[in-house]
Design brief:
By secondary structure, this protein is an alpha+beta fold. The protein has two domains: about 10-155, Nucleoside Triphosphate Pyrophosphohydrolase (Alpha-Beta Complex); about 160-220, Arc Repressor Mutant, subunit A (Orthogonal Bundle), CATH 1.10.10. Helices cover about 30% and strands about 25% of the residues. The strands form two sheets. Strands 1, 2, 3, 4, 5, 6 and 7 form a seven-stranded mixed sheet that branches. Strands 8-9 form a two-stranded antiparallel sheet. The radius of gyration is 21 Å and the shape is elongated.
Length: about 240
């Protein structure tokens, strides 16, 4: 860097405070009718040992999206995870050791695909939303806003491909939506609306555990699911 450029940068930016910028990832999974949250015991002070979201600082040559993808890969072993930015959290006192601005993301992963050994290595665990422990700093607020963001997505687009196995019954899909929205949905209305979207393909196999008659398994017709309005079933 030449002297003229150094002088220019000092004049333009030298008077302004410097902050750390991080990403925090709200990692959602789904199992046994419950929406799960992956949490980690914080490995350093302050708040060492307390439950935390997975996160880290954005590196010099990374975008926020790249940092989030790197952290998700490190903590789950998965590539190409669906993620969406939630919001920036920037209160001056949100962390006690330094001024840290966090850009939060939520991610959706299939629990049958992630690397359990990596999760255990970091001492992490899955918690249902109803039974999650109290989290450090403003991470409870981050989780709350991430859930609202997920509900908004699920209100206009089916999110099953990111959380369910390849084949599932309509009851299983409805229970996923009930877990996301944390309320009971009318089975008949849900079935009618979802089938009217014409994006599910019925297989010849049945799940006999749901009823004596059995319930057909479905899968999505294509990997890229277009946005479809299902807000009349699940109003956000």
């Amino acid at each position: 860097m030449n002297e003229l450029k150094r002088k220019f940068l000092k004049e333009m930016y030298g008077e302004h405070p410097k902050h750390y910028v991080a990403v925090d990832c709200v990692i959602f999974g789904y199992m046994d009718g419950e929406l799960k949250l992956l949490l980690y015991p914080r490995s350093f002070e302050p708040a060492k040992g307390n439950w935390s979201l997975s996160g880290g600082f954005i590196q010099e040559k990374e975008s926020a999206d790249q940092a989030a993808a790197r952290i998700l890969k490190r903590t789950t072993g998965l590539d190409q995870i669906y993620m969406e930015q939630v919001a920036a959290f920037s209160l001056p006192d949100r962390e006690t050791a330094a001024r840290v601005i966090s850009i939060a993301y939520y991610a959706l992963i299939r629990l049958d695909k992630h690397d359990e050994e990596i999760v255990r290595q970091y001492g992490a665990d899955w918690f249902s939303l109803e039974k999650k422990p109290d989290l450090i700093f403003d991470h409870n607020e981050i989780v709350g806003k991430a859930l609202v963001k997920l509900q908004q997505k699920a209100g206009y687009q089916l999110v099953g491909p990111e959380l369910l196995p390849e084949f599932f019954t309509l009851t299983q899909l409805r229970r996923l939506y009930e877990a996301i929205f944390q309320r009971t949905l009318d089975p008949g209305n849900f079935r009618k609306k979802v089938l009217s979207l014409d994006i599910l393909k019925r297989s010849n196999k049945k799940d006999s555990t749901e009823s004596k008659k059995g319930a057909y398994y479905y899968c999505f017709k294509q990997e890229e699911i277009p946005d479809r309005d299902i807000g009349r079933i699940v109003k956000v």
